[in-house]
Specification:
The protein has 342 residues and is of the alpha+beta class. The protein is built from 12 helices and 4 strands; from the N terminus they run βαββαβαααααααααα. The longest helix has 28 residues.
Amino acid sequence: MNTQKTYTFHVHGMHCNSCVLLTESELAELPYITSAKSSLQNRTVVVEGDFGEQTAEEIAQTLTNVLQPHGYTLSIEAEQKEKNLSEFMVAVPIAIGFAALFLLLQKSGIVHLSGFGEVTYGTAFVIGIIASLSSCMAVVGGLVLSMSATFAKESSTARPQILFHIGRIVSFFVLGGVVGLLGKAFALSATVTFILGLIVGLVMLILGINLLDVFHWSKRLQPGMPKILSKHAFNVSKINGAVTPLLVGVATFFLPCGFTQSMQIYTLSTGSFLKGGLTMLAFALGTFPVLAALSFGSSNIAKSAKSGIFFKSAGLVVILFAVFNIINALAVAGIIPPVFNF
């Protein structure tokens, strides 16, 4: 007698391609589930398995218990989420304040957060900070939590966490350098470099709009790394071994975080091992404080009551960077006259 049944549940808390990978991977690990297929566009997950005599509501609750540590809940009904536009009353002044500080630092010459036609190390660091706090880094946080559970039986969990961060930071420098060298090997023309710069700006613009959590259609535009590669990278954390945390840190370079991918695209345009490596290193260092706090038990800002304000503020700041880079790319290409003369 075939006891396999298929159910479709709505996923609350799903924001990006990382969420798709994380929900599928966690549910597929359950022994009674044959397959799990998540959809970002519909914010659903289709699961097939042997659930015994449980009702759909009971199954949703059971699976929620598995996903809730990562910030997701399942239900048989679609999420009726109100667009809390009042949060913009706080987010807009914060973003304006950041923009004013940004311009002040640029004008003073004390810190160059962005150069003419390029993403500087300061920019990469700030983007890293935003990325580590955003939903796009959910899968990396999931890796950290998964790894912590895997090594929980050890006398100390500090060593694997330290190895993870060392692997992540070192690999971002080395692999970022390799990506830079690839750009040099292909001898990118000025036109290709311009196109890559424009793509970086557009990807960041999409990410910023997504963080506002107002226009859900924009989630369909978010780029993603090939799923097969991302799944292999995520599955490294399931291997219990002495060097596994180090490998997991390396694997995060290949996970579907839009912010990471935008920096990788820019790194390709540098045509330099050192510049490419330092750009990705600056980005990884920006992500380090939050991921380190998560490693050692600190809560995620995404679960905070003020998360809506933070994400809207961060989204507006990312949009600011995106517009800045798009305008600079157009100016460098001679399409428009220079707008920002720093």
